[in-house]
Design a protein that fits this description.
CATH topology of the largest domain: Aspartate Aminotransferase, domain 2
Largest sheet: 7 strands, mixed
Order of helices and strands: HHEHHEHEHEHEHEHEEHHHEEHEEH
Shape: globular
Number of domains: 2
Strand content: 5-15%
Number of strands: 12
Length: 379
């Protein structure tokens, strides 16, 4: 079930007209105060095409909406029971024990609690550059050192260099596939990396962020979940924000050895996921038909977009995600600004890749309209 953000409200059975007349929106009476997805950019007759945050443009599946509708009656209750139900569903999906699961308010919470639990003022976080910034940002906020290792010439994580700096580190953050570069490492490379770290720094924890797991087509790739169950120093994080289309609902989880999971639970925010998100996540994780359809849509729209940039003469990195990194060979800032003015938002800067532009994959219709804009802007 593909939905726009407007039809999200109708799918819940509330009626979009009623929502827009509610105090949250209509009472202010000014378009400028509406969310960006409800207003056009200046000079544009259409809402902004949002290709800047790696979101799933299709939203949650039909089973997720059905589950949310059925949960409204529990909105006045704390979500303890619903958390247990989701933990059991995740455990079944991964063939692990419930004691191996740690829920989070999106994967952002699981990444944060790993930084809290495993780094310190004397035990650094090792991270790539560029990569998803949340762990590094939080480590710096609490005064814990961060060691940034540049990606290699193919925009892949430099696992050898990250392992070489592991001695004495508290945590190594490995985003695989990596955001924003879209590249992935296969199972053998990850296994060799973990083994090398365990030899040189046996006390260091390795956090493998698999947020884009469902989008990977590389046949050498495998989830690191079995490794995490067996090894107390390995953790895998997952999210419902990407293929499941629930970025605005904030649900994620980590899978770890039971001893490691127990340590992580101490840092969790109690009742940190609302009952609607819990219900939707529970319904979504086993909805294999919806997952397959989202993979197909992303694969087709991504191939179309890659062909556009390559036919225009631009190099595009390998992508195992729902976004592309494009080498414009120049400062992307003017392209970014002109595209937004024309109604298309693309990714922000990701230093040190100063000539590269990240473009998230929208629907096929969005990508056709967006590439028309980008062709004009790039020319």
């Amino acid at each position: 079930m593909s939905v726009s953000r407007r039809s999200f409200v109708s799918a819940l059975g509330l009626g979009s007209a009623g929502l827009l007349a509610s105090p949250a929106f209509g009472a202010r009476g000014r378009e400028a105060e509406l969310p960006s997805w409800l207003r056009a950019e200046p000079g544009s007759a259409s809402p902004l095409i949002r290709l800047d945050s790696n979101e799933n443009p299709n939203g949650p599946g039909a089973k997720a909406f059905e589950a949310m509708r059925g949960m409204f009656g529990e909105a006045n209750r704390y979500p303890d029971a619903e958390e247990r139900v989701l933990v059991e569903a995740i455990a079944r999906a991964h063939n692990v024990a419930t004691e191996n699961i740690v829920l989070g308010c999106g994967s952002s919470e699981t990444l944060r609690l790993c930084v809290e639990a495993f780094t310190s003022p004397t035990k650094a976080l090792i991270s790539a550059s560029p990569t998803f910034e949340a762990p590094g940002r939080f480590a710096r906020l609490i005064g814990h050192p961060v060691i940034a290792v540049p990606v290699d010439a193919k925009l892949r994580l430099d696992l050898d260099q990250m392992a070489a700096k592991a001695n004495g580190a508290g945590l190594i953050f490995v985003c695989n596939p990596n955001n924003p570069t879209a590249t992935v490492h296969g199972a053998s490379s990850v296994q060799a990396f973990v083994a090398q770290v365990r030899r040189t720094s046996p006390g260091t924890t390795i956090l493998l962020d698999e947020a884009y797991h469902e989008y990977v087509d590389d046949p050498t790739y495998r989830t690191a979940v079995p490794m995490a169950i067996a090894d107390p120093n390995v953790i895998v994080s997952r999210t419902f924000s990407k293929v499941f289309g629930m970025a605005g609902m904030r649900a994620g989880y980590a899978i770890a050895h039971r001893d490691t999971a127990n340590r992580m639970q101490d840092w969790r925010v109690d009742s940190g996921i609302n009952v609607l998100a819990l219900a939707a996540a529970t319904a979504s994780i086993s909805d294999t038909a919806h997952i397959a359809e989202e993979q197909r849509k992303n694969r087709e729209a991504k191939a179309f977009t890659r062909a556009f940039f390559e036919n225009a003469g631009y190099a595009v990195s390998a992508s195992e995600t729902n976004f592309l990194m494009v080498d414009l060979r120049r400062d992307p800032a003017p392209v970014r600004a002109a595209s937004r003015q024309a109604g298309v938002a693309v990714g922000r800067p990701f230093p040190p890749l100063t000539n590269w532009l990240r473009v998230s994959i929208g629907t096929m219709d969005e990508m056709k309209r967006a590439t028309t804009v980008l062709a004009r802007v790039l020319a």
